[in-house]
Design brief:
single chain; 157 residues; 3-stranded antiparallel β-sheet; two-stranded antiparallel sheet; 4 helices; binds zinc ion; zinc-finger; Znf_ZZ_sf; ZZ-type domain-containing protein; metal-binding
Length: 157
């Protein structure tokens, strides 16, 4: 008999940097690349989130917690749509603790001159728009870029 109670989120996560895999208590997954770029909490904190040709250094990483870890870590807080409160890091100045909306504002205010800012803003705008849609529909799903990311570079001045 398979346990139907686990059907909500049976996901075998695998850390890119160390042998950790399975139902990791806490892991980080790239918003843009999806679960092909996943790090366990320890590796992420040690800065092992190595960029690659596809996975750019400014890609926001989403923290994912299993229920046990969440209850231990966020005593008394509620998951929103099955997700823990997110805290993003600014890839340009390493400031921590932004929501996706705050990070979008921060990048506009502080880093509008940065060469990669338009690409990050593109991602953040879509994250924030998708969040509104998810909120309305009560759904969660993978983020999909509206246009092919590889062609975005040629649009820059
Ligand atoms: Zn790891
Ligand atoms: Zn990525
Ligand atoms: Zn910054």
């Amino acid at each position: 008999m398979s346990s139907l109670s686990d059907a909500t989120k049976v996901h075998v996560a695998k850390c890119l940097s160390c042998p950790a895999q399975g139902n990791l208590g806490r892991r980080y997954e790239c918003i843009v690349c999806g679960d092909s770029v996943t790090y366990c909490g320890d590796c992420y904190e040690q800065g092992k989130n190595a960029p690659s040709e596809k996975h750019k250094y400014y890609h926001p990483m989403k923290a994912i917690y299993n229920r046990d870890f969440f209850e231990l870590y966020f005593l008394g807080e509620e998951m929103v749509n099955g997700e823990a409160p997110q805290s993003y890091k600014c890839a340009f100045c390493d400031e921590l603790g932004f929501t996706a909306e705050e990070l979008q504002l921060h990048v506009v205010e502080k880093h509008s001159g940065h060469g990669d800012a338009p690409k990050l803003l593109d991602i953040l705008v879509q994250m924030n728009e998708q969040k509104k849609c998810e909120y309305a529909a009560g759904l969660t799903g993978g983020w999909q870029p509206a246009s092919a990311p590889d062609s975005a570079a040629s649009l820059l001045p």
